[in-house]
Structure formats: C-alpha cells, structure tokens
Amino acid sequence: MQIIDLSIVYRYHLRTLFLSRPTDMSYFTQRTNSPKTVILQAVLIIVFATLVAFGVNSARPDGIHLFENWSQKAAERQVGPGLRTVTFDEIREKTGDGSAVIVDARDADFYLLGHIPGALNLPVHNFDQAYPETSQQLPFDEPIIVYCEGFNCEMSDQLAEKLLFAGHSQVLVYTGGIEEWEGKGMPVETGESGKTR
Q1: Domain coverage including residue 126
Q2: Among residues 85, 83, 88, which one has the least CA distance to residue 71?
Q3: Lowest CB count within 10 Å: 10, 147, 148, 154, which one?
Q4: C-alpha distances in Å from residue 135, one per residue of 13, 64, 151
C-alpha cells in the first residue's frame, strides 16, 4: 500500500490545469519533497493563515483590539448610570489618609489571596448574606470605594449599585482594581490577619 502525499496531488492538479501535462498515476507516488521544503510550506501556510486572520479581525466592527493603552481604557471605562469612578492616584491618596472605606467586591477566596490594605470584603455574589455583617463598617455619608479584579471586571459596578440602593450616597468605583494596584507596585494584604506582601 502506497501513501499519497497530498502536496504532490495538489501540485499535480495545478500542473495539469496550467501546463496541460499528460496524466499518469506514477506522478502521485514520487517523493520529491525534502524535509526542508515541507517545513517551509508549513511555515508559509501558517503565515498566510495568520495574515488572513488579522485581516478579518481588523475588518470586523466587533474585532479584538490587539494594541490598547490600558491607562486610557481605565479612564474611558463606562460604569453604570449614577456611578462615579476614581483613578489610581485618588485611591492611593484616600487609602493613605483614611478618608474613604475601601471594599473588595470579589469572592472571599480571592480576597484572601490578596487585597488592598485595610479593604473590607463584601462579595457581590453573596451580598444578601454578607451585607448585614459588614454594614456597621460602611458609612452612609462618607466615600466608599469599591474595586474588584481589574478593568474588565464588573463586580465592582454591581456592588456599587447595590450599595447605592441600600442608601450609601458616596459610592465610587476603582476600575483599575487589584491588577492595577499590584501593577503599580503597591502593597497587598493577604489572608484575614492582613499580612502585607
């Protein structure tokens, strides 16, 4: 049993179409490709497919943006109606002077792995059970800054809306989240005891 190399079949058909060569089956059984040629063909196919993929992606209105300025993205991120955002500099200032309560909207497991120093944990997915335990530490007329994982995380928006609905008037959203906080080299507390790393 002979194995037919598909690249030979492809070239055979191209030659037949353009050069009008006579057809005989012995052409299919010839092994004319060296390993270098096969590797080069595979690389060319991959490069061509990648270029087509990038072209299709850039032509689509909902394509993936390959290069983004994340600081600008944070500044432009739209939060829900009635919500205001704070920047990294503003949250750093407010954590330094203690003029705001910082609240982590992520689940407890992620909070324990690392959170902004002094932040309370109020998981948005467990709000109904966790809020009564935390509500005594949340002021109604002073700033509360809510954050979650990062720019693409909307748990902070959801928690901010719930806090506004509960009567807290100055709820702010830190859109950069723990990712930006750590990325700027700021300290992070781990566990319940607040060990700083």
Answers
A1: 70-196
A2: 88
A3: 10
A4: 76, 40, 26
Bridge partners (DSSP) listed for residue 171:
144
* Pairing of β 189-190 and β 195-196: antiparallel
Residue 161's CB: how many other CB atoms inside 10 A?
A: 19
Q: Is residue 87 part of a domain?
A: yes
Q: What is the pLDDT along the chain (197 residues), one digit of tens a residue?
A: 455 555 665 666 556 655 555 555 555 455 566 788 888 888 999 999 999 988 888 888 777 766 666 556 555 556 666 788 899 999 999 988 888 999 999 999 999 999 999 999 999 999 999 999 988 999 998 999 999 998 888 899 999 999 999 999 899 999 899 999 998 899 999 987 556 55
In a domain, 144, yes or no: yes
- Cα dihedral 181→182→187→193 (10° resolution): 100
**Alpha helices, DSSP H, located in 20-114:** 26-29, 35-59, 70-76, 88-97, 108-113
Exposure on the CB side of residue 102, measured as CA atoms within 13 A: 26
Residue 1 lies in a domain: no
For residue 97, give the 3-state DSSP assignment. helix
Whole-number Å distance between alpha carbons of 48 and 53: 9
Whether residue 113 sits in one domain with residue 44: no
Residue 121: both structure tokens together:
């944990």
Residues 116 and 148 occupy one common structural domain: yes
